[in-house]
Automatic annotation (TrEMBL):
Residues 51-522 form the Amidohydrolase domain. Transmembrane segments: none annotated. CDD domains: YtcJ_like. It holds the Pfam family Amidohydro_3. This is Amidohydrolase. It comes from Terrabacter carboxydivorans.
């Protein structure tokens, strides 16, 4: 039996809302679990190895409740267009990246954001043709809901003027009816017919694991598909998985999961079966979020990624087979419809864990439905600060609860936080900063965007720890108290002191050490 006494003057236990004390100065850990805190830990830990933790504060390890680690890992080898401020700048970045690639390598990912360009118009295949060379180019938008493809990609996928729009998607066409190269939502899947050789995922996933540990994440809920699942299973079998992973199943793999007998919660302390992920709509940046009213300056109300009857059928199929459900819904109409499918789950007498992913723009009348149906609002604070100007521009002053963390909490709704990386940076301290200030990194807007929806630091940390774990059925981790797994991080600054004096500095917090199950998983050199 391994016994370790962790000591530090300021250890945040996460127990602020319970009978225990929020602060302590010692943790006694036996075989990966906390068995005592404070004076009791010190008195019982005479024979334990003693570790003095560095930094200004120690806190529970953070859980990203919504992250795409396969996508994030693959992005490490792709061109990064997030900071481009014009089409021309984006094209030059593509040209430079393409020159360093093997001849048969695709141009992929990209994470371009035309909403940030000087002229915010969506690009076309002709401009991409000029810089992509004789290779397939299929560049994803920052939100992952639109592909910018070159002519070669369209040709190899057989996409022509006569190709019909798939259900839940759109092939954007020019005035003459020719595809422009912009594929929205399910239309992106038309490119899947193109043969593609990819490098093995595992080495990239291991590098990604190191990155996540370095920013204080000790556990994640991964949203990606079967390739990521297989890589995690292999890592775990070899003892190389140092993060705790709850692994989602994607909608197309639901029947496979059922046939294999997967049930949410199966697994161990490190790797577990998670929920099934469905899509109800698209994204704000791609103008495909499903809204009850048209976007300002646009004719449409977005896209229903799946017909309601199909979404209802798939949701019930998952729930009846012991799989929890998380459904992507950004627009107010999408949220309303998803809540309808969840009402059917509850009417079926099922206690399935239910989450709405993002819940960005919600009709105020629907907030109590989250509470009544015991639905978790799985939200990403950095989406607010990334999209606030766009929300004002294309949604405007209509009465919606937008990124409404305060409203959800005040209504008794459980709120779990994550990043949606690589859509946003996975660093959870960026999310904490956004939740507390509702400001971008540059301090704008002054006072915060719709500041009435700010939350306290303690509430934000709870959403990144206890609530994030509970949203996938885990109650054995998230607090630093007896019985909990010993996942903790040592941080270079006292976030609770900064909340009062300089909340902007929360974003710049640096993790000095990350411990998972009482074992050192990362140390800043």
């Amino acid at each position: 039996m391994r016994r370790t006494l962790f000591r530090h003057d300021r250890i945040w236990t996460g127990d602020a809302g319970h009978a225990g004390a929020p602060w302590t100065d010692a943790l006694l850990v036996e075989d990966g679990r906390i068995v005592a805190v404070g004076a009791e830990a010190i008195s019982a830990g005479d024979d334990a190895e003693s570790v003095d933790l560095p930094g200004a504060v120690v806190m529970p390890g953070l859980h990203d409740a919504h992250i795409h680690t396969e996508w994030l890992s693959r992005d490490m080898s792709s061109v990064d267009l997030r900071e481009a401020r014009s089409l021309e700048e984006a094209l030059e970045l593509v040209r430079a990246h393409a020159q360093g690639l093997p001849d048969d390598e695709w141009l992929h990912s990209g994470r371009w954001n035309h909403n940030r360009w000087a002229v915010p118009v969506q690009p076309d295949r002709h401009s991409l043709d000029a810089v992509s060379g004789d290779r397939v180019a299929a560049l994803s938008s920052v939100d992952g809901h639109t592909i910018w493809a070159n002519s070669l990609a369209l040709q190899r996928a057989g996409i022509t003027r006569d190709t019909p729009d798939p259900v839940g998607g759109e092939i954007v066409r020019d005035a003459s009816g020719e595809p422009t190269g912009i594929l929205r939502e399910s239309a992106q899947e038309l490119l899947d017919v193109i043969p593609r050789d990819e490098s093995p995922l595992r080495p990239w996933l291991e590098r990604c694991q190191d990155w996540l540990l370095s920013v204080g994440l000790t556990s994640i809920t991964d949203i990606d598909g079967e390739d990521a699942r297989a890589a995690y299973v292999e890592l775990h079998a070899e003892g190389a998985l140092r993060l705790r992973v709850t692994k989602c199943t994607r909608d197309p793999d639901l029947e496979l999961a059922i046939s294999e007998g997967r049930r949410s919660g199966q697994g161990d302390e490190v790797f577990r079966v998670g929920p099934v992920k469905f899509f109800s709509d698209g994204a704000l940046g791609s103008h495909t979020a499903h809204m009850t009213e048209p976007f300002i300056g646009h004719e449409g109300c977005g896209i229903a990624a799946m017909p309601y009857e199909v979404l209802l059928e798939r949701t019930l199929l998952a729930a009846r087979n012991g799989l929890d459900v998380v459904t992507h819904a950004i627009g107010d109409e999408a949220n309303r419809l998803v809540l309808g499918t969840f009402e059917a789950v509850r009417a079926d007498g099922l206690d399935t864990l239910l989450r709405i992913e993002h819940a960005q723009h919600v009709l105020p009348v629907d907030i109590p439905r989250f509470r009544a149906l015991e639905v978790v609002a799985s939200m990403q604070p950095s989406h607010c600060t990334a999209d606030l100007e766009l929300a004002d521009e294309i949604i405007g002053p209509r009465r919606l609860a937008s990124y409404a963390w305060r409203s959800f909490l005040d209504a008794g709704v459980r709120v779990a936080f994550g990043s949606d990386a690589p859509v946003e940076d996975p660093n959870p301290f960026y999310g904490l900063h956004a939740a507390v200030t509702r400001q971008r990194a540059d301090g704008q807007p002054l006072g915060g965007w719709r500041p009435e929806e700010k939350v306290t630091l303690t509430e934000a940390v709870h959403a990144f720890t206890v609530a994030a774990h509970e949203s996938v059925g885990r109650t054995d981790v998230g607090r630093l108290q007896p019985g909990q797994l010993a996942d903790l991080v040592a941080v270079d600054r006292d976030l609770w002191a900064l909340e009062q004096s300089s909340p902007a500095d929360i974003r710049d917090a640096v993790v000095l050490q990350t411990w998972v199950g009482g074992e050192l998983a990362y140390e800043r050199s």
